[in-house]
Design goal:
This protein is α/β, with parallel strands linked by helices and 322 residues long. It folds into 2 domains: 207 residues, Spore Coat Polysaccharide Biosynthesis Protein SpsA, Chain A (Alpha-Beta Complex), CATH 3.90.550; 103 residues, no CATH class. It contains 16 helices and 8 strands. Strand 2, helix 3 and strand 3 form a beta-alpha-beta unit. Helix 6 packs across helix 14.
């Protein structure tokens, strides 16, 4: 059996029916207890407790342990769930399930049929996060890209905890830097990889109800992406490419500021085809603006950087902010 874990913050206020769908979908997983780390101030904890009582599941409820950080983050919540699992249970597998990720029918059956957990080298099993909103798939298809391959590549670059099983031995000793608010999943994935464990991709995956982020949220994530890359070596593909050029001091890095401007018209045409005129115009301008803004931030941040660190070297060195 596994132990299920969820991290939430006001999920009942923002998702309601989706949260219940997530919980109901989890019943295909053979688990006896649910670890809930809730840093919100609404009724989420009570709703999950009632659900657990009605379905015969033990609930272990907690707020985030802060690990010296001034406030809770997704990283402190994720680490808290891991520590509760390691300290309070003897089970072999911990499964994270996000509050916006509904397990598709057959998720666990696929794991059993393929005897994934019988392979002692497997430390992580991740299910593809299939978008409920078809807009991204339409946009990618216009660029000649396949959604499944795109999502797999993103997982290989930065991980994901939408619906992920972790072997106990693979996460023992992990210490997620508390500041990695939306990159805590990347740290976990690379921890598993850097310690020699194998990752398996479950194609059944989840129906992902991830909402379109605001411009402010996008900027905050990109700023964290720069810090995560420069300090910990956690990089998504585009971030690596841009930063490497900037760090080398090449003229190409500075000329990259022109690319989002020159690409506005093609992006407008593509986005309006994918999203419709009104949403497409907003999305195209937002995308190109963020690309320009990000490149400028990178150029300023890496001017004194000799190289981007290797994430495995960082983990082995133990230089993690507590």
């Amino acid at each position: 059996m596994a132990i299920l874990a969820m991290i939430t913050k006001n999920s009942w206020s923002t998702r309601r029916q989706v949260l219940l769908e997530v919980l109901n979908s989890s019943l295909q997983i053979p688990y006896r207890a649910l670890i809930l780390v809730d840093d919100g101030d609404d009724e989420t904890g009570d709703v999950v407790r009632d659900w657990c009582d009605n379905h015969g599941k033990e609930l272990v409820y907690s707020r985030s342990r802060l690990y010296g950080h001034p406030h809770p983050t997704r990283a402190t919540a994720r680490q808290t769930a891991i520590d509760i699992f390691l300290e309070g249970f003897k089970d072999e597998w911990l499964m994270f399930l996000d509050d916006d990720a509904v397990l598709r029918p057959g998720w666990w059956e696929w794991v059993e049929v393929n005897k994934v957990l019988e392979d002692g080298a497997v430390g992580e099993v991740w299910g593809i996060n299939w978008d409920v909103d078809p807009a991204r798939e339409r946009l990618l298809s216009l660029f000649g890209l396949d959604l499944k391959q795109y999502l797999i590549r993103k997982f290989e670059e930065r991980g994901g905890t939408h619906d992920t099983l972790y072997r106990r031995a693979a996460i023992e000793g992990v210490r997620i830097p508390p500041e990695l608010h939306v990159y805590e999943d990347a740290w976990l994935h690379h921890w598993v990889r850097c310690h020699g464990w194998k990752s398996v991709i479950n194609p059944v995956g989840v129906a992902h109800y991830h909402p379109m982020p605001s411009l402010k949220a996008e900027k905050e994530k990109l700023e964290l992406a720069i810090r995560a890359a420069l300090k910990y070596g956690i990089c998504e593909y585009e971030h690596v490419r841009v930063m490497a050029g900037a760090a080398s001091g090449s003229i190409t890095a500075y000329l990259s500021l022109l690319r989002p401007i020159l690409g506005l018209v093609p992006m407008l045409l593509t986005c309006t085809r994918a999203y419709g005129v009104r949403r497409g115009l907003v999305e195209a301008v937002k995308r190109q603006y963020l690309k320009l803004w990000f490149r400028w931030k990178v150029l300023r941040a890496v001017k004194d950087v000799e190289r981007i660190p290797d994430v495995c070297e960082v983990m082995r060195s133990g230089e993690v902010e507590e």
